[in-house]
């Protein structure tokens, strides 16, 4: 099964109208001139979704959000509904990023509900899973990421399993400059795909599993050459057009 590679930038809480304008222009220009043959997207802070819609409509660069509410509407101050993301042309939404799990106490059950909320309106959820350093050192990586994924799979209708994207992001590698070796990442990706297959053997080969955690131009090619690594979720390097484009070109 040949899965088309997907490279997604996670801007986190960075940017300004002026800085984004320059970055999006550089990315759009680069996409036209460089040899990039993968799906590519940026997940930006919610206030900048309208800017993406205005700047990127019709471009090969898709966009999305970094979180979504489990509620459709109502008295949920500060929350953003999935339909609102659709109003601004989003294709993707990240759910369960480790920063939201750590700083906003998001449980795997909540992440599962967010995944469902995204799927209900046709958004592609990028479901993040990953272990801490202590969990890896205790030999618990597969158990931890397996439980995080299973919580999501438990809520999905059979017809929806193939519609998710999974991102394996070891917490110890995010923003630290430490990257999982290609083989370390491949081992976890293969275990995740087995888990997906246990839920839906037909869907598992179709689901993109991205690697995230200090992916840079100089390590992207070897990571994405692994058989179960279908692209990258990129934090820091997504804020520099040249780096992000180089990673996409390596995909
Ligand atoms: C991320 O936050 O999703 C991420 C992968 O960050 P970085 O690339 O900076 O490690």
TrEMBL record:
User: Origin, by domain of life?
Assistant: Bacteria
Cross-referenced Gene3D superfamilies = Aldolase class I
Q: Which Pfam families match?
A: TIM
Protein's name according to its UniProt entry: Triosephosphate isomerase
Similarity field: Belongs to the triosephosphate isomerase family.
Function, in words: Involved in the gluconeogenesis. Catalyzes stereospecifically the conversion of dihydroxyacetone phosphate (DHAP) to D-glyceraldehyde-3-phosphate (G3P).
InterPro entries per record: Aldolase_TIM, TIM_sf, TrioseP_Isoase_bac/euk, Triosephosphate_isomerase, Triosephosphate_isomerase_AS
User: What SUPFAM superfamilies does the entry give?
Assistant: Triosephosphate isomerase (TIM)
Q: Which NCBIfam families match?
A: tim
Organism of origin is: Glaciimonas soli
- Where is substrate annotated to bind? 10-12, 175, 214, 235-236
The subunit field of the Swiss-Prot or TrEMBL record says:
Homodimer.
Tell me which residues this entry annotates as catalytic.
Answer: 97, 169
């Amino acid at each position: 099964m040949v899965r088309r590679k997907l490279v997604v930038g996670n801007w986190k809480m960075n940017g300004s109208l002026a800085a984004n304008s320059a970055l999006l222009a550089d990315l759009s220009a680069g996409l036209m001139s460089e040899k990039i043959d993968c799906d590519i997207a940026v997940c930006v802070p919610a206030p900048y979704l309208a800017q993406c819609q205005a700047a990127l409509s019709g471009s090969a660069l898709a966009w999305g959000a970094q979180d979504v509410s489990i509620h459709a509407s109502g008295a949920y101050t500060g929350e953003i509904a999935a339909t609102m993301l659709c109003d601004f042309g989003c294709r993707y939404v990240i759910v369960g990023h480790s920063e939201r799990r750590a700083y906003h106490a998001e449980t795997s059950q909540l992440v599962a509900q967010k995944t469902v909320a995204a799927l209900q309106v046709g958004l592609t959820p990028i479901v993040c899973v990953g272990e801490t350093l202590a969990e890896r050192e205790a030999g618990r990586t597969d158990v931890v990421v397996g439980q995080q994924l299973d919580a999501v799979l438990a809520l999905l209708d059979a017809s929806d399993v193939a519609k998710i994207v999974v991102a394996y992001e070891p917490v110890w590698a995010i923003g630290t400059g430490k990257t999982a070796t290609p083989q370390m990442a491949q081992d976890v990706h293969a275990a995740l795909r087995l888990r997906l297959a246990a839920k839906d053997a037909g869907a598992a080969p179709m689901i993109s599993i991205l690697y995230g955690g200090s992916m840079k131009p100089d390590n992207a090619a070897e990571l994405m050459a692994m058989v179960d690594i279908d692209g990258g979720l990129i934090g820091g390097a997504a804020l520099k057009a040249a780096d992000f484009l180089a990673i996409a070109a390596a995909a």
